[in-house]
Inverse folding.
């Protein structure tokens, strides 16, 4: 059996086949996207003419190292394509994202794209979202109160930490990882969370009409 990392690489590299000359591309975040960026960097060196908008500072750094030209929303109103990873994909192709803490910028970038391709290994495909704790980005001010209000929706929010320090997102905010027993109605949960003052965005990406490239044991499957 191929190691899982290889499947991330296979899914990432497959997505680059959808990138055409002249496109403006949303560049997602995470380890699977990093494989896509490496392949895209090679294509750019060979002469492919594209511009990307990164969805995180990490992606921006890697894209710069790889020589991928970048732009931003002061110059671009709509992206031709966005390519992003996910932590879970359900049977209706709803997504749970934000394991790396990049959910807000990812949602802005992904929603600005005419087409969104999600790249995952098979372990991310689940019948129902929610085994992975749902990342919710919140304002630092009063985050404890925001967390108590979120808890009323049926979860125990945990403040995300990195090396014993509170994790701070690219936007200067905190992330609450919210473990619900199951997320049966993601649309409703997303709306309920967004009504809580202090919540910036949730990691639920619902009904975005995505194509999903799934790699399993070296084989590719396309879900849409
Ligand atoms: O905030 C991070 C993003 O939503 C990632 O796209 C997601 O966590 C998947 O990451 P990976 O490809 O590393 O599993």
């Amino acid at each position: 059996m191929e190691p899982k990392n290889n499947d991330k690489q296979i899914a990432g590299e497959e997505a680059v086949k959808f990138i055409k000359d002249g496109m403006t591309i949303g560049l997602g975040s995470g380890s699977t996207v990093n494989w896509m960026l490496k392949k895209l960097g090679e294509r750019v060196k060979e002469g492919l003419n594209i511009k990307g908008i990164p969805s995180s500072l990490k992606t921006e750094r890697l894209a710069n190292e790889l020589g991928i030209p970048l732009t931003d929303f002061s110059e671009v109103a709509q992206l031709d394509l966005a390519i992003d990873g996910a932590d879970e994909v359900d049977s209706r192709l709803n997504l749970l994202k934000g394991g790396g803490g990049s959910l807000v910028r990812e949602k802005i970038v992904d929603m600005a794209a005419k087409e969104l391709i999600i790249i995952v290994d098979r372990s991310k495909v689940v019948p129902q979202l929610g085994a992975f704790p749902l990342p919710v980005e919140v304002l630092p001010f009063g985050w404890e109160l925001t967390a108590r209000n979120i808890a009323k929706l049926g979860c125990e929010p945990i403040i995300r930490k990195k090396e014993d320090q509170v994790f701070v997102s690219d936007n200067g905010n905190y992330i609450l990882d919210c473990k619900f027993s199951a997320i049966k109605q993601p649309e409703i949960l997303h709306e309920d969370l967004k009504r809580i003052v202090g919540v910036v965005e949730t990691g639920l990406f619902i009904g975005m009409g995505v194509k999903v490239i799934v790699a399993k044991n070296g084989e590719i499957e396309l879900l849409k």
